[in-house]
Amino acid sequence: MEQESSTNSKNGMRQWLRTLTTGKVVGLVLILLLAIYLVVLLVVPGQQVRRLNRQYEIPEDNEKAPAAFSGDSGIFALQKKKIFLESRLKMSKSDSIGLAVDLSDSLVTLEINGIVLYREKINTFHASKLFRAVKRETYLGMFAEPLRVTSHHSTFEKIPLIYRKVPKDSIEAEEQLSEVPDTTLKKPPLLILTMDHDIQLYFYPYEDLSGRDKFIKLIFNTVQELRYNRQYLSSLIHLKIPAYHSRIKIFMTEREIISLYRALPENAIIALML
Amino acid sequence: MMNTTARQNMLQLTRIWNALRNAVARTFLWIIRRMDEIPYRKIWSYGRIPVYILITLICFIYLVPVVQEWTIHARKYPAEELPPAEIKATTKNTAALKKSVQNLERKLSSLTPRSPYLVINTSQNVFTLYNNHKLVRTGRCSTGSYVLLEDGNQQKWMFETPKGKFRIQGKTTSPVWKKPDWAFIESGLPVPPPNHSSRFEYGVLGDYALTLGHGYMIHGTIYKRLLGLPVTHGCIRLNDEDLEAVYRTLPAGSRVYIY
């Protein structure tokens, strides 16, 4: 009887040890994978800078090269302005509404065929260091053409549809028609436009947010970050270097963010100057 | 008699209040007494793994982009002392660039017409009238409500003001509204034959109307209190004074930009 119980306890001990070892191995593998993931993520921005520099490299014998390589910041500022204007001119050939973001003058402009429909001052902005890390000729190459919006996410609807069933009689119709639309904001308007070269324009309200709105902003940002992490993971699984999202955060008034988002068509074009 | 009833009510209320107070105090004391009995260690030993996972996730979510930004090094372009020949070339380059920027600015501003045009903001329900590169008038308007009216037979009507570039195709005074089918359906009324007298409504569109094509118009309204709100079936409503100014400023063929 005693022998049996000691065999049982030995077996239990062995099983427990086996589980512990397996747990440790799994834990170690997970930590290793996490470390690799972290290292890759930290390498990604540098890779992106190098990739962009390679993409827009101008051969030294090219006549554009001397001006582009010039250390003179005055010339570079003029070159930036020139490509921004050229980009807006290209945008004006399209019959759809486009967006011109001029961060050097802190202006956002909605345009169609070169006609300014609306111009608004940016209160503050913050741009990723990537734009200062790339070579000057790379910058000029990146923004020589208007950028195209590839995806967009927001806390409010682009088309604020109100679904209504056909009324059964004139009494029900009277009730429906007497309703005054509620245009008050339910959530703070937060908007992200992702463009070519994985550049992202974040539009945040400049106004002070209430505690509830801050929480909504936190949730919105967390969801976005989770989305990027999913993209990073998917790239790693497919043995690809993930793309780095260079962000530009723009702070504007709530009403303007809504106007801007609702005015832009799907896959809108954007001219950008930093 | 009244005094006795009031006293009884007061006594009742005091009794309820005392009972509530005692219950709260007893619960509080019960919690205090059992504070030492809570198996904190046990809870922590079971719960720490999800807590660690959560902390790691939060670190990942918020620290990774910050650290990624740190890893980027901004490029520095030190001011070089250029030889005289290169200084000359740079000055020439700068002058050429300035000229080219000026030309581009001129080209871009030439795209804005001198002729009058109207801009409608459907999000804020505001219009702006321009003439000769100057803002002439601005005010409130009403645009499409974005109501999607559905009947059981998969028939749908969307009351939206279209966005983009339009031209004034025609101008009329004292316009008459010929009510389309949806106006009857929306009012819960039977749809009459095409040219039935009930389809024609006088005086509801104001004194003037400017047509934009596809049935869309800029016209007046009898619902002035709703100006500044998205309430229309797709047309643009203005108040009487604004409508008159727009009517008089914009000739047929003028551009209207809606966004």
Describe the structure.
The complex is a heterodimer of chains A (274) and B (259). Chain A has 274 residues and is of the alpha+beta class. Chain A has 8 helices and 10 strands. A 9-stranded mixed beta sheet of chain A has the order 3-2-1-10-5-7-8-9-4. In chain A, a hairpin with a 4-residue loop joins strand 1 and strand 2 (107-112). Chain A is flat. Chain B has 259 residues and is α+β, with helices and mostly antiparallel strands. Chain B is 41% helix and 22% strand. Chain B contains 5 helices and 13 strands. Chain B has helices spanning 2-34, 40-71, 84-109, 181-186, 240-249; strands spanning 117-121, 126-131, 134-140, 147-150, 156-159, 164-167, 170-173, 176-178, 200-202, 208-213, 216-219, 236-237, 255-258. The termini of chain B are far apart. The mean pLDDT of chain B is 88. Classes of the chains: A alpha+beta (274), B alpha+beta (259). Chains A and B meet through helix 1, helix 3, strand 3, helix 4 and strand 6 of A and helix 2, helix 3, strand 1 and strand 4 of B.
